[in-house]
Amino acid sequence: MEFKLHRWLRLTAFLMFFLSTCLEVSAQHWSFDGKDPLKADRKNGELTLSNARHQLELSSGIIGKGLRTDGYSTSLRTEISFNQLVSGCSGWFALESFPTDTAAFFALKDRKTRISVSIGLNRFGEILIGKGNGKEFSYLATGYFVEKFKWLNIALDIRAENSSVWVNGHKLKINMSSVHFPEKTDEILVGKDFREIFLGQMDLTSINGIIDELKLWNKPVPIKELQNEVSALAQKVPVLAIPELRFKDDFSRPKYHLLPAANWTNETHGLIFYKGRYHIFNQKNASNLALRQINWGHFSSPDMVNWTEHKPALSPEKGYDENGIWSGHVILDDKGVPMISYTAGGPKMGIALAFPKDSTLNDWIKYKQNPVVPGQPDGYSRTDLRDTYVWKEGDKWYMVVGFGVKKDSVEKGALLLYSSADLKNWSFLHTLFEGNPAVDNSGIFWEMPVFKKIGDKYVLLVNKVPHKGVPARALYWVGNFVNERFVPDHPMPENLEIINRLLSPSVTEDKDGRICAIAIIPDEISGEAAYLQGWSHLYSIPRIWNLSEGKIIQSPHPVLQSLRAANRKVLDITVASHQPVKLYSGQQYEILAQIMPNKAKQFGFVLHKNPDGSEYTKIYYDADSREIVVDQRHSSTKKGIPLRVRKDTFLLDTSKPASFHVFVDGSVVEVFINNQHAFTTRIFPSKRSSDQAEVFAEGGNINLKAEVWTIQPARMKTEF
């Protein structure tokens, strides 16, 4: 009798719990506002967070706080107990970018049958309904497109008799009859799909943005309540800036060099000075850390040091640029209005144009007649033309496009030349210039061309692509523009940098008429290291270009002096052989050193040195071999960091003092010699204490006069 009574009490308790659950407005609600943001507000349900950095990042949500995701590793998961019913789900989302592949807001699954259903979107922002059985997945297009940088209320009602999808309070008019919902939902993902598509460690089915106010419903989704929420909240502007927590402890992340808020960037392009501000554009993938889903990012600045990152100026759309908004150029037309010329990555590679809506240059309209160059010229078989540079000569506009040709079985870099009277209608002329790789080692294909007149000469700069183990490199010739062809003064090109690292400069005149360049300095670290780091690549400080004796002379732009702190250190000493002298300890600094080599065989700097000597990088001149050497064999104990020696020939007159101007900013180092020659490197030590800088000599003493400044962080803002 006691046993039966005990069973009856247990059954009664279960039924009361079940009925009370069904009568609640929602079974689970996560607002992310409590002391434990991953626990539901009304029940004991808990979300499990997946994230590359194993940290919960909170931003301003639609109400209170919301979860900030990264686009490639962040997602949420919860399991549903046997006594809970799920009839729908809803939540607020704000997207910074569209995904690299089809991603999901919600994905619901029955773990026993493996049947799953999801509501997500593709890389163009179209809402999709996903269906899966654990092995195969398919997606139903809805024809409904959402916008980035706006709040979205997404709701899914999975009742078999009335299944529906709601976006911002509007029911999508789609036929759901082909969608088979799980009989029993016991696992839910938020921010990704059950379909697993990875690029290395990066999940391509994740969203990049903010998640807030998640609800799992155990009764029909209260649409009227959601519509009232949408009316009250949808016009709020989401704050999609990256939380400070993400890179708080990343001492390798630069503070006065330009780089996006997070994730992937590649070349700069379109540096201009317009209506009192500098603008520069960049290859940007906010969704992950790879050369995918390329947009044109946009920065502006009053001085080329303090920058604001804006929303992307251009993004891929279905059609002629669906596979990426690739590199190009920005020029001012005959009326002084900017115009973008870009490479449209579609079914064919072509050239397209865009025009600004207003003088802020934040919003652009693609030209209705795009693409203005639909593909390669007649008579050429290669289809991968890319990267434009536009200029005016007399009353005619010209445009070159990076290319490669094959003649007599020899592949060589080349530039296609087009002309136009109005910047919209372009005619192919011929190749402006072709390389001769057997003689000049200029490679088989050229990217990111610059054709800039300096004084009475033209500088033609190209970036040869990697080929057969030979890395990309920025090369240039100096010559003349004769009969619509480039005629170099010498057949052999010059290297832009002594040590090959910096690539693809974007060039313009500053407000004082000086020719300035900003270029990319790649990381070159492994995919795993980048995955944990959360950002890839950055840009150089602005440099001044001049031309002297047929060579580009590079020096740091004087605007950098505005970041110098007051604590200047001055030295005037002799540095004895094998007795290095400490210059600085920290991550952001500038060294202006004048060294009299005397008879020393090697002299230079030790950077990012740890007190115990476990990590350090040596950058020096070898007088015997006449080489600049960057020795990074001991630069890091971290996994995925290249440990190598790079060197190249450089003739330095050791009979007189030499000037070394060194800029260190976390992982990036830029060095200028005699205010003429430059090279760059990247250093990624594993220890924060690896921050000491020394000057050293070997095989003889040197005389040193030096000034050292702490460099203050530049003001970097995110306007989204």
Question: Mind explaining what this structure looks like?
Answer:
The chain has 720 residues and is mainly beta. The protein has three domains: 25-244, Jelly Rolls (Sandwich), CATH 2.60.120.200; 249-560, Tachylectin-2, Chain A, CATH 2.115.10.20; 564-718, Exo-inulinase, domain 1 (Jelly Rolls). Helices cover 6% and strands 47% of the residues. It has four helices and 53 strands. Strands 1, 3, 4, 6, 11, 12, 13 and 17 form an eight-stranded antiparallel sheet that branches. A seven-stranded antiparallel sheet has the order 2-5-14-7-8-9-10, with no helix packed on it. A six-stranded mixed sheet has the order 37-18-19-20-21-53. The radius of gyration is 29 Å and the shape is globular. Residues 1-25 have low confidence and may be disordered.
Write the layout of secondary structure elements.
Layout: H1 2-23, E1 28-30, E2 48-50, E3 58-60, E4 65-68, E5 75-79, E6 88-97, E7 103-109, E8 116-121, E9 126-132, E10 137-145, E11 151-157, E12 164-167, E13 170-171, E14 187-190, E15 198-199, E16 202-203, E17 208-217, H2 223-233, E18 263-274, E19 277-285, E20 295-301, E21 307-314, E22 325-332, E23 338-345, E24 349-356, E25 364-366, E26 386-393, E27 396-407, E28 410-420, E29 427-434, H3 437-440, E30 446-454, E31 457-464, E32 473-482, E33 485-488, E34 494-495, E35 503-509, E36 515-521, H4 527-533, E37 535-536, E38 538-539, E39 543-548, E40 551-556, E41 569-575, E42 581-585, E43 588-596, E44 602-609, E45 617-622, E46 627-631, E47 645-649, E48 658-665, E49 668-673, E50 677-682, E51 692-698, E52 702-710, E53 716-718
Parallel strand pairs: 18-37, 21-53
Antiparallel strand pairs: 1-17, 2-5, 3-4, 4-17, 5-14, 6-11, 6-17, 7-8, 7-14, 8-9, 9-10, 11-12, 12-13, 15-16, 18-19, 19-20, 20-21, 22-23, 23-24, 24-25, 26-27, 27-28, 28-29, 30-31, 31-32, 32-33, 32-34, 35-36, 36-38, 36-39, 39-40, 41-52, 42-51, 43-48, 43-52, 44-45, 44-51, 45-46, 46-47, 48-49, ...
